[in-house]
Automatic annotation (TrEMBL):
<feature type="domain" description="Lytic transglycosylase MltA">
    <location>
        <begin position="159"/>
        <end position="314"/>
    </location>
</feature>
<dbReference type="GO" id="GO:0019867">
    <property type="term" value="C:outer membrane"/>
</dbReference>
<dbReference type="GO" id="GO:0071555">
    <property type="term" value="P:cell wall organization"/>
</dbReference>
<dbReference type="GO" id="GO:0008933">
    <property type="term" value="F:peptidoglycan lytic transglycosylase activity"/>
</dbReference>
<dbReference type="GO" id="GO:0009254">
    <property type="term" value="P:peptidoglycan turnover"/>
</dbReference>
<protein>
    <recommendedName>
        <fullName>peptidoglycan lytic exotransglycosylase</fullName>
        <ecNumber>4.2.2.n1</ecNumber>
    </recommendedName>
</protein>
<feature type="region of interest" description="Disordered">
    <location>
        <begin position="29"/>
        <end position="55"/>
    </location>
</feature>
<dbReference type="Pfam" id="PF06725">
    <property type="entry name" value="3D"/>
</dbReference>
<dbReference type="InterPro" id="IPR005300">
    <property type="entry name" value="MltA_B"/>
</dbReference>
<dbReference type="InterPro" id="IPR026044">
    <property type="entry name" value="MltA"/>
</dbReference>
<dbReference type="InterPro" id="IPR010611">
    <property type="entry name" value="3D_dom"/>
</dbReference>
<keyword id="KW-0961">Cell wall biogenesis/degradation</keyword>
<keyword id="KW-0456">Lyase</keyword>
<keyword id="KW-0732">Signal</keyword>
<dbReference type="InterPro" id="IPR036908">
    <property type="entry name" value="RlpA-like_sf"/>
</dbReference>
<feature type="signal peptide">
    <location>
        <begin position="1"/>
        <end position="20"/>
    </location>
</feature>
<dbReference type="GO" id="GO:0004553">
    <property type="term" value="F:hydrolase activity, hydrolyzing O-glycosyl compounds"/>
</dbReference>
């Protein structure tokens, strides 16, 4: 998700222990300008559409780690299910920019081939956005992957106070990726390790783990010219690292956008679950966690260091943030999904017990905590509203994947 740390969802990443480690996976002077608190938005309740009965068991000959392996059920006609309005319009925009990559990708889910998307992508290039819902209903058909039971969290692009140079009130280093951080493809050494990668550094004649968060925070890589910028608040910066990209509001009123440029290879620990298990917080939302960390700065610093993972950044100067599909993610249109179950670039129709995320989204991103069929992370953009919704997003309901018309016939066994 925005190539963020393990690509993880904010709330899920804070609560869960994502596999981002061995396997790659307030200032004294105040900020430059006020940062909205982003208090959790009160949910708007809704009644989700029921999931479909699974008509046939999955094919035992297929890999259960893919959509084709867990089974696909043909969905209903979608013409009456796609809400018109802004979400459909921005979803069409997001689908349109996904098309060049979508038509060339190998679909790990087993649901589609690149050529399946040609007609829809050709039509999307000139389709009027005012009738976006009609576009989706005309060029797509629905399938349910597995049991169709969806769980949706949220993420956003944080805005925090920062400076390009170190100065009073801006003391927290934001580091570039170190040149001695090395990725090792273990598949080159053994066929049994194909697809597995570790990160570390060379120490003499040995390959060893890279410095963990506590070591980096204490200054082990300081003074090497890796300082990209400086944050005003270590708690805000910690949360930006979980997201993997964000905006620095600079003292002169400018904005510097930064994006994920690697991680130290250490295991990710979700501090929300850790704190909840210790009785330090009750609900476990982003806002609860931040309140505790600020109220107990010494203990809070130690808790943050229990997450040994540390994220490095680069400055972003073009469109973005960039998702795992390699295109800019779109606020209130992009979801992160598991590409083994959802083709990256495909539309997804969500019906949930919260009204805010209901409708059509485009799978343009991935995340370390976003694993399995019907698990999604919704992107809400930047600003107070995005932070308020994403920080408390937890919705359940049903999901349908929209595939190009004709492709479902290959998937549903007679």
């Amino acid at each position: 998700m925005i190539a963020r740390q393990s690509g993880a969802a904010l709330l899920a990443a804070l609560m869960l222990s994502a596999c981002a480690g061995g396997m790659i996976p307030p200032s004294a002077t105040g900020p430059a300008r006020p940062i909205p608190s982003g208090e959790a938005t009160r949910p708007v309740p809704a009644t989700p559409r029921p999931t479909l009965p699974v008509e046939l068991p999955a094919d035992p000959a297929l890999d259960k780690g893919t959509a084709a392996g867990v089974g696909v059920t043909r969905g209903p006609d979608i013409a009456s299910l796609i809400p018109s309005g802004e979400r459909a319009r921005v979803a069409l925009q997001a689908f349109r920019i996904s098309c060049p990559t979508l038509m060339k990708r190998t679909d790990a889910s087993g649901l589609t081939k690149g050529s399946d998307w040609n007609n829809a992508c050709a039509a999307a290039s000139s389709w009027p956005e005012a009738s976006a819902s009609e576009f989706f209903s005309r060029y797509f058909e629905a399938v349910q992957v597995g049991d169709g039971a969806a769980f949706v969290t949220g993420y956003y692009e944080p805005e925090i106070a920062g400076s390009r140079t170190r100065q009073p009130g801006y003391e927290v280093p934001i580091y570039r990726r170190p040149t001695d951080l090395i990725d090792v493809d273990l598949g080159q050494f053994s066929d049994s390790l194909k697809g597995r990668t570790i990160r570390g550094k060379v120490n003499g004649t040995k390959f060893v783990p890279y410095d963990d968060r506590s070591q980096i925070v204490s200054g082990t890589i300081a003074g090497r010219g890796l300082e990209l910028a400086y944050a005003a608040d270590p708690v805000e910066f910690f949360f930006l690292q979980v997201q993997g990209s964000g905006r620095l509001n600079l003292p002169d009123g400018g904005v510097m956008r930064i994006g994920y440029d690697g991680q130290n290879g250490r295991d990710y620990t979700g501090i929300g679950k850790l704190m909840k298990d210790r009785g330090l917080i009750q609900a476990g939302s982003m806002q609860d966690i931040m309140q505790y960390l600020r109220a107990h700065p010494a203990e809070g610093a130690a808790i943050m260091n229990e997450n040994r993972s540390f994220v490095f950044f680069r400055e972003l100067t073009g469109a973005g943030p960039i998702g795992a599909l390699g295109v800019p993610v779109t606020a209130e249109a992009t979801v992160a999904a598991d590409p083994k179950f959802i083709p990256l670039g495909a539309p997804v129709l969500l019906s949930l017990d919260r009204a805010e995320p209901a409708g059509v989204w485009i799978a343009q991103d991935t995340g370390g905590a976003i694993k399995g069929a019907n698990r999604f992370d919704s992107f809400w953009g930047a600003g107070a509203r995005a932070r308020g919704i994403a920080g408390g997003m937890s919705a359940r309901g049903s999901a349908l994947v929209l595939l190009p018309i004709g492709s479902a016939a290959r998937l549903v066994r007679p």
